[in-house]
Design goal:
The structure holds two protein chains of two kinds. By secondary structure, chain A is an all-alpha fold. Chain A is built from 19 helices and two strands. Chain A has one domain. The N and C termini of chain A lie far apart (50 Å). Chain B has two domains: 57 residues; 77 residues, no CATH class. Chain B is flat, with a radius of gyration of 24 Å. By secondary structure, chain B is mostly helical. The chains are: A mainly alpha, B mainly alpha. Chain B: It comes from Roseobacter insulae.
Chain lengths: 498, 146
């Protein structure tokens, strides 16, 4: 109880509150700008937080995460362009409602659903993360290794690519993590004589490159795409009947979103899709979906926002990122010398609870920003791309340089940007690469420690119940979808959806 | 075409990386605990190669549209920036931002000036005066640093 209150007291510092309010507004702007999302925003801001104390630094990153995830709905509703991929399903019903002149009702519902979903998930985070971390006390290197393998196997299902391509991208990230001195033997690998590479390739330049600079090239492809805006006279709150109709949907989607968020590497996008589908499945009027169903907005927005809190559970408790943005936050924790895991809730308890409170605060702030500022923030989408992206590039380059004040990092960011663009072009998602880079070092270290512990008898890992459980889950995560597809093909009732 | 070209390119890259990994120093067996330094990267490279072969077999062919002029121009400007940054990073940023804005259709002097001069200057001042991070010395930054 004491760290919980101490965390709140730390957060009540007026300077920090002002900083978090500014971060909320910044996150909303980032989320509202098509092309920029929570992950890109957090990656771009990571270098700015390096000189700060750990609490404000990580609180800013988590605030950006929550605010940008919420703000994707603003553009999804008003210009049919999801600010973030997590809001893609919000377009389906939000934009038709806006076209009918009910943009305010749609935005109001998105705001309220996001707030409730976010608050529920942060409460789950407060309860589940310390419990999960306590469970991690029973983990030895083989269990940690198996858990990291499980986290990496979940990469197969994320991003835009096929599972095979996602695993290749993740493995490429793991390969990048091997650059530099080997942790156990200090032998240099793939450094090509550059002393700066001895400590390995930094997370920051690679993330800035693959999320920020590659997006610039993607935007170059879309220069001629026209966007239509629906003008909104005023925000009109959803009616009492609307709330009566959607409260079950909000609660259900919040539960779904939190659960999906807790799964390693799954994030708000998957959560919003499942939340939306479940809302339609349980609806009394499924035929309205896609034509302006208020339940569709509630289902999608409650799920995507609740995934943010869920995603922080494995990130803080086990050091396995729950989503792409959580991977950037994990990189921030590592840069500040903080080790996620059980010790975080004993030795760094005040820090952990301050982050929880910050996430709770930002979710409450949405109500005001969403209801009173949405109209204003919707205008940022009309900053011309030819003005916005050169400025984003300048920030990206300076951000990549700032961490170690090394020009090599600038070139790494540029190269990562070009590689990221071609990966996306050929169907390889860049998200697994980022997560592979973060988890790669951990994976190798834990494999090495396990082999030392088990005296090079690696098969003994399968005799330990917890590590065996994670290996079984890994196999299910990798091959489960194929078994399910086979099962569906064989069973005519399932395949016809009856 | 890309169905085979991209995985083949990945396999070639992995083969080169694998050969490089065979050049790593080895730890004498008497001192070795766990793995040799090359073992883990080699495992990862073998995995990537095996998966790339599977992609060649199972991936559905996708018709890619040719890359647009804007993408080529932007890539070309990256090269220009990389070269100019050797002279001065600040100069490189200004020229890149201005040229990119122009290439993407910005014809207003104010708009081009905003991205080419005002934004790099503000970002430079922010990093120099607030975060105390010095840009690398160069043609223009020497004027500021003296």
């Amino acid at each position: 109880m004491e760290p919980l209150l101490a965390g709140l007291i730390v957060l009540l510092d007026p300077q920090l509150l002002a900083l978090l309010f500014a971060a909320t507004l910044g996150g909303v702007v980032i989320g509202a700008l098509p092309g920029l999302n929570a992950t890109t925003g957090a990656a771009l801001l990571l270098p700015f937080t390096i000189t700060m104390d750990p609490i404000p630094a990580i609180a800013i990153l988590t605030t950006i995460y929550c605010a940008a995830t919420f703000a994707g709905a603003i553009t999804a509703i008003l210009i049919n362009t999801p600010g973030t991929s997590a809001s893609a399903t919000t377009c389906l019903d939000g934009y038709p409602l806006a076209q009918r002149g009910e943009a305010g009702r749609a935005l109001g519902m998105a705001t309220v659903s996001s707030t409730i979903g976010g608050i529920i998930s942060v409460i789950c985070l407060m309860l589940a993360a310390p419990l999960m971390a306590r469970m991690a006390y029973n983990f030895a290197p083989p269990e940690y290794f198996a858990l990291t393998v499980f986290g990496i196997s979940m990469l197969a299902t994320i991003g835009d690519g096929t599972p095979l391509k996602n695993i290749i991208a993740g493995a490429f990230g793991i390969l990048l993590a091997t650059v530099g001195k080997d942790l156990l033997t200090t032998v240099e690998r793939f450094t090509f004589g550059f002393n700066e590479l001895s400590e390995g390739i930094g997370f920051v330049p690679v993330m800035i490159g693959i999320f920020g600079i590659s997006e610039l090239l993607v935007q170059a492809e879309r220069l001629n795409v026209e966007r239509k805006q629906v003008f909104m006279k005023a925000i009109k709150l959803p009616s009492r009947e609307d709330y009566a109709r959607v409260w079950k949907t909000i609660l259900r989607s919040s539960g779904i979103g939190t659960f999906i968020g807790i799964l390693p590497a799954e994030g708000a996008t998957v959560a919003s899709m499942i939340g939306y589908n479940e809302a339609r499945r349980w609806s009394k009027t499924p035929e309205e979906f896609g034509k302006g169903a208020i339940e569709g907005i509630a289902g999608s927005e409650a799920a995507n926002n609740s995934a943010t809190g869920g995603a922080m559970v494995p990130t803080l408790a086990l050091g396995i990122p729950g989503s792409p943005t959580a991977a950037v936050i994990l990189a921030g924790l590592m840069i500040h010398g903080l080790q996620p895991g059980p010790t975080m809730f004993t030795e760094q308890a005040v820090f952990a609870y301050a982050i929880f409170w910050a996430m709770l605060l930002v979710n409450v702030t949405f109500i005001f920003v969403g209801l009173f500022g949405a109209k204003l923030f919707a205008r940022v989408t009309f900053v011309p791309v030819q003005i916005l992206w050169p400025i984003v590039f300048t920030f990206s380059v300076v951000g990549a340089y700032a961490l170690d004040q090394s020009m090599l990092d600038v070139y790494i960011a540029l190269a990562s940007g070009v590689i990221g663009y071609f990966m996306r072009r050929f169907g390889y998602s860049v998200v697994p690469l980022a997560i592979g880079l973060i988890l790669g070092g951990m994976l190798e270290k834990r494999l090495g420690q396990s082999l030392i512990m088990l005296d090079d008898q690696w098969w003994l890992m399968f005799t330990r119940p917890l590590s065996l459980l994670f290996f079984v889950l890994t196999i299910l995560a990798l091959f489960g979808p194929y078994f399910w597809r086979l099962f569906k093909q064989r069973d005519p009732l399932v395949s016809t959806g009856e | 075409m890309t169905r085979f070209a991209v995985p083949c390119g990945i396999v070639v890259f992995c083969l080169v990386a694998y050969w490089l990994s065979t050049q790593f120093d080895r730890v004498p067996p008497i001192l070795l605990r766990g793995m040799q330094p090359a073992d883990f990267p080699q495992m990862v490279l073998l995995l990537i190669m095996a998966l790339s072969v599977l992609v060649m077999i199972f991936d559905k062919p996708i018709q890619h549209e040719p890359m647009g002029v804007n993408v080529w121009t932007s890539l070309g400007l990256f090269v220009v920036f990389a070269l100019l940054a050797q002279v001065d990073m600040f100069l490189g940023l200004g020229v890149f931002a201005g040229a990119l804005a122009f290439a993407w259709g910005e014809r207003r002097i104010l708009g081009a000036g905003l991205v080419a001069i005002v934004s790099p200057t503000l970002i430079f001042l922010l990093f120099d005066m607030v975060f105390r991070i010095r840009f690398p010395r160069g043609l223009l930054t020497n004027l500021w640093y003296g």
